[in-house]
Amino acid sequence: MLKKDDDLSKLRHSAAHVMAQAVKHLFPDAKVTIGPPTADGFYYDFDVARPFTPEDLEQIEHEMSRNIQADYPFERRPITKPEALDLFQRMDEPYKVQMIRETPDDEPMSVYQQGDFVDWCRGPHVDSTGKIRAFKLLSVAGAYWRGNEKNAMLQRIYGTAFFTQEELDDFMQRLAEAEKRDHRKLGRELDLFSISEDVGPGLILWHPKGGRLRTIIEDFWRKAHYERGYDLVYTPHIGRSKLWQTSGHLEFYADGMFAPMEVEGQEYYPKPMSCPFHIQIFKSRQRSYRDLPLRWGELGTVYRYERSGVLHGLTRVRGFTQDDAHIFCTPEQVEEEIRQALDFALFMLRSFGFDNYQFYLSTQPEKFSGAQEQWDTAQQALRRAMESREIQYEVDEGGGVFYGPKIDVKIKDAIGREWQCTTIHFDFNLPEKFDIYFTGSDGAQHRPYMVHRALLGSMERFFGVLIEHYGGAFPLWLAPVQMLVLPIADRHHEYARQVEARLEAAGFRVEVDTRNEKVGYKIREAQTQKIPYMLVVGDKEAEAGAVSVRSREGGDQGAQPVDAFLAAARAELTP
Ligand SMILES: [Zn+2]
Ligand SMILES: [Zn+2]
């Protein structure tokens, strides 16, 4: 399997060379940079006078096909650093020159040539261009050189390549499906959220319908937490630099934080996580073993600096609300707490329609904080919890972070893509740094175990995943507008309002479309708004106390008494 992945990367990277060759033929002034393979294909960044157009991409594809038909061998030639500098200076390729310059003098270098195109590259590549049989250019986007907005804006062409045409066709089909479900597109069409340049990139504005959905998720989340013995806390958005010094954030994580603001000569940082605040609550009084376990949850909004180049809709943002919780417990309680957290995670994910998961266990790295005994207890608890639930998991041996082992859960969405959501991880660092303890039954002071856990991850990211999973067609319990009543003519407005009032009294979210439009038009619009039920009312319905039901998935369901429809809709509400 791994071998095959390697081969595929090699194929795709080779295709990137062939693309660069084509671009240099068609746009001799283009400056080449880098062209790595990616999980889905490859790209190459070019410095060009104007952005590439869709017509350019077609031409480039055509030129690539010619290079592939010519079946040029990829010829490797070792080269010294001075030779490489000289060669690429003569070729007037400043980006290559910069990269060569920055490479250590003693590092072996090579150039690869296919036809008349030479690239400075480590390889490897396929034997010849003819090996690239199934490829496609996908899109073009601006990308800063080295991802830094202070550098030149380049044009990045994305493409993909596969071993067979069949695999490529398959991929293109999945891509089309993913595009239809793109949460940025649906977020606009369904009026769920937006991002404003004036507010700032990576900062989400939740519109009324998105806000409605979030409220439903949060209400469900809060209720589930109280039912499972959690308490909910609220903590501020900013905290003094001293706090972040103690936690180690300023030492190890300052790059990922927003800059501080000064208040009365003191620096305050927007919080990148809530943990130190929860620790302060723990420290606010003497804790005894009788108080434990303590489970504190918070929907805490945090701010982290991400480069503008990597921001993406709801899934990569600068401000987000984590569904964070911290469990403080004794060594004896650890295993049961982990088992419960795992069950809780599965309950949450299933409730939102995800039934397909991958579990990952990351274990002790070479450098670690905390005692060996703690690591052993923690890792055993994580393993046992998964085994007791007959969960298959992959182990990243030694791949854990320094402060504690963890379980990550990735969910698979409706079209098979994996998303990281749940994480349950131990922290042996913060309890130490903040020196927290509880009084044991022996009267002595003991360090509690501290577990961080997020089930959905963040509200923003989870919302993005949810939109794509359902393609915007949310199940009844989540749909921001569950039912739309459609009066056929003006004289039916009054009855429509009566129906609305009855449904609302039963707890449903209902709207009436009283616009002066044809019913067919209103139905089509409700359909694109992905509203689960459309209820048409005219003379016959008004007379019979009924509604003509159209469902989003099933189309026309015929006329039903309002009560019968209500009962059926209630039964459909899950969880
Ligand atoms: Zn290469
Ligand atoms: Zn935490």
Shape from CA axes?
A: globular
- Strand line-up in the sheet with most strands: 10-14-15-22-19-18-16-17
User: Cα distance, first to last residue?
Assistant: 39 Å
Spell out which ligands are present: zinc ion
Q: How confident overall, as mean pLDDT?
A: 94
Features:
BirA Bifunctional Protein, domain 2; Rossmann fold; binds zinc ion; 575 residues; eight-stranded mixed sheet; five-stranded mixed sheet; alpha+beta; Threonyl-tRNA Synthetase, Chain A, domain 2
Any chance you could write out the topology, listing elements then pairs?
Blueprint: H1 2-26, E1 31-32, E2 42-47, H2 54-69, E3 75-79, H3 81-90, H4 94-102, E4 109-114, E5 117-120, E6 134-144, E7 153-162, H5 165-181, H6 183-189, E8 193-194, E9 205-206, H7 208-227, E10 231-232, E11 238-240, H8 241-247, H9 249-252, E12 261-263, E13 266-270, H10 275-283, E14 294-303, E15 319-329, H11 334-351, E16 357-362, H12 372-388, E17 393-396, E18 406-412, E19 418-426, H13 430-433, E20 438-439, E21 445-446, E22 449-458, H14 459-470, E23 483-487, H15 493-505, E24 510-512, H16 519-528, E25 533-537, H17 539-544, E26 546-551, E27 555-561, H18 562-572
Helix pairs in contact: 1-2, 3-4, 6-14, 11-12
The protein binds zinc ion (2 copies).
